[in-house]
Amino acid sequence: MSHDDKALCNKVKNVFIAAGQFITATLNLKSPITVDAQFFDFCIQNGDCGTETVILGAAKPSRMIPHPDADGKIRLYPQALYKQLNVPTVHPEMGQSEITAIFNSRMNYWFNGDPMPMSERQVDLLYVVIHELTHGLGFTNSWNDYFNIQALTPAVGNISNGSTTQAQFFEFIFDKSIILLQSGTPLTSITDQLNQFQINPTLSDQDLINSFQASPQFPIAQNMYKNGVTHSTMGFLFNSDIPLNTPLSQDQIQNDVLVLETSLNPFQPSSSIGHVDFDTYVNTADFLMMFTYPPGKTLDQMMSNGGSAKTTGPMGPKLRQLLGVLGYDVKKDYTPPTINITSNSSLTSFNLVFSLICILLTFINWY
Ligand SMILES: [Zn+2]
Fold first, then answer.
1. Could you tell me if 88 and 162 lie in one domain?
2. What SS3 class is residue 168?
3. Are residues 296 and 245 in the same domain?
4. Fewer CB within 10 Å of terminal CB in the chain, N or C?
5. How many A from CA of 48 to the centre of ligand 1?
6. CA of 271 relative to ligand 1 center, distance in Å
7. How close is the Cα of 364 to the center of ligand 1, in Å?
8. Which residue has the higher pLDDT, 316 or 46?
9. Which of 221, 256, 291 is the C-terminal boundary of a domain?
């Protein structure tokens, strides 16, 4: 590893230390969360060499754990969240780490201390890391066009009941709080309607799609697709006092809901729904979970712009409420962490533990 590579890997390590400090300044993690993080060249390692759009990173819960909810439905919980709940922490389906994250080294990153202003072509790695880890904590939805037929459903899974196994649609815990803003309909009631469709697990994929398209449930899924590509149709509700199945007022949408990203058309798996609405939040404290990076802006600049540097930090007031609804213990007060990087800083921040692998491969022309 060259001297430059070593310096870059050190800067990356410091970014993870800072990200951990910001997250644990917001959340009181009662049980350890381990993050498996890798920093490498997506082009060299994965052949992902797109020049139009560069994938900066991706993170997901390492495992989703099925858990019966208060309403009797089984939903899938990200393992990081599952471990914070008051449930037995040993689960047969539990994996080694809570969050798996990868970050692309094929990008000109800006690091704290680098010259300002940051160029439009650079991105602040700290912003990207906190964004991705928030997905890993549970900011992730199951509604998707799984069959590529312009119809949205939750994920298909099997539930086994001793001797019988039944396939059905399963929600993530995030989905439980999503409502249609125009009608106040909770998506979970739409899942119930879709689950009237009997999934026959012995059918081939194509036969299953055909039978779904012929079913009375198909128009429901098509209508959900329409909602998924229409601006400001869905929101994450964090006030349980709002009556369901009643259209929300503008006031309620502003105060009690995080409006989700539904303006991308066609539907973009892993961008649509699973982010906050760009137009609504780009100039607010809740910018962090927008689907795309704001060109030329550092995390600090976005926080100053949204007025949240001292009040909530990167995780804005609505995101804090959302994480609380999911089941995290959100700290009442936010104290901006002192980012004091020394060469022997640890990659552990309270109960947030990083295992970071930094691979900077360079091709050597040896023939
Ligand atoms: Zn994202």
1. no
2. strand
3. no
4. C
5. 18
6. 6
7. 34
8. 316
9. 256
The pLDDT tens digits for 18-72 are 999 999 999 999 999 999 999 988 888 788 787 677 788 888 898 999 999 889 9
Q: How far is the CA of 215 from the centre of ligand 1 (A)?
A: 33
How many angstroms separate the alpha carbon of residue 134 from the centre of ligand 1? 8
Residue 141: CB atoms within 10 Å: 24
Length of the chain counted residue by residue: 367
Strand partners, 180: 234
Residues ≥6 apart with Cβ < 8 Å to 342: none
Q: Are 360 and 1 in contact (CB under 8 A)?
A: yes
CA 290 / ligand 1 centre spacing (Å): 7
- What is the pLDDT averaged over residues 346-353? 82
Contact 228, 272 (CB under 8 A): yes
Do 181 and 232 touch, CB atoms closer than 8 A? yes
Q: Report the separation in Å between the CA atom of 116 and the middle of ligand 1, taken as the mean of its atom positions.
A: 25
Residue 97 and residue 16 share a domain: yes
Q: What is the spatial distance between Cα 11 and Cα 162, in angstroms, rounded to a whole number? A: 51
Strand order in the sheet with 234-237: 178-180, 234-237, 257-259
How far, in Å, is the centroid of ligand 1 from the Cα of 85? 24
The residue segments making up the domain with residue 315 are: 3-140+274-354
